[in-house]
Write a structure and sequence with these properties.
The complex is a heterodimer. By secondary structure, chain A is of the alpha/beta class. Helix content of chain A is 31%, strand content 15%. In chain A, strands 2-1-3-4-5 form a 5-stranded parallel sheet, sandwiched between helices. The two termini of chain A are 13 Å apart. In chain B, strand 2 (64-69) and strand 3 form a beta hairpin. A 3-stranded antiparallel sheet of chain B has the order 2-3-6, with no helix packed on it. In chain B, strands 1-4 form a two-stranded antiparallel ribbon. A two-stranded antiparallel ribbon of chain B has the order 7-8. Chain B is of the alpha+beta class. The chains are: A alpha/beta, B alpha+beta. Chain A binds chain B through residues 35-38, 41-42, 88, 91-95, 98-99, 112, 116-124, 126-127, 129-130, 132-134, 136-137, 141, and chain B through 20-22, 24-25, 28, 32, 38, 60-62, 78-85, 103-109, 111, 113.
Amino acid sequence: MALKNRIRKLSPWVYVLHTGGCNGCDIEIPCIFTPRYDVERFGIKLVATPRFADVLLVTGPVCSHALPFAKRIYSQVPDPKVVVSVGSCASTGGVYKIDADFDNYAVAGPSDQVFPIDVFVPGCPPKPEAIIQGILLAVSKL
Amino acid sequence: MRRGLGRIIKESISNLGRCQTITYPSSIGRTYSHIEGLRGKPEFDNTLCTGCRACVKRCSDNAIGVNETNGTRTLSIDVTRCMYCGRCAEVCPVQALTMTEQFELSYDAPRGSFTTNDVALEPCAGCGSSYISTRFYNEVQRRVLENVDASVKGVVAKDIEKYMRLCPQCKRRRVYELNTHTRKYY
């Protein structure tokens, strides 16, 4: 089991869950896989399905429309999993929910109201380096 | 064939010198930024801030909160909510808010990462409730007296002393006493 966890830490696979919002963070996340930042040298890999993933990157305020899909994708990620909330919108609602008690019919709340979040990455959008730091922080919790 | 191979080896050796990948996580700890004027975590200068709340009004994300307890006004910027637009730093009349180049702001749950600043408030001369900070009073006085004509400077200084020590409620209660009732201008 210890060996399994060690291997998992050596190559955390990442799945990006976009739940609405302006797409800014979704543009920054593929940046960390480009030759400039190249996180594949740490074994971090972008995968196409949540069933392969260890780390779930959540972007955007969870829109009402995206809520059932977000819940489903979260349940599809096998345990142990860590969830990283990337950007202000995913963490607090951002400009889509300007107060904690602000009632927006289209936003089902920031992501930590939908499922437990392990690491928050502030920024609007966060720099690719900040996202790398967030993922490495999340990997240490795996 | 051999000539082509030599060219490939030469090319690949010369390419080693221009590796594009940056050694990011190994440089954690030292200030790392290759962008000039990057806007990162906003920070207060406690020695300058007057607590005027201009930044609170300007913030388009409602990231700056105000809390007044026991004669202290606490401004706190929610770093997670902030979108790093820099408008608060732009609007600050005394340049107390600055955008630093910190961008490594990730943290573990639970949510809550703030930069705070405490400003001591003085009590209102009428009712005693905390109302204005000394630094704000001094700043307003300085700015007004700087721009006013020299002949009326004494009167204006006296007026500032008279009106600015009172909270809005006290000012309203004493309209006849201070002779500021709107009926006067009819």
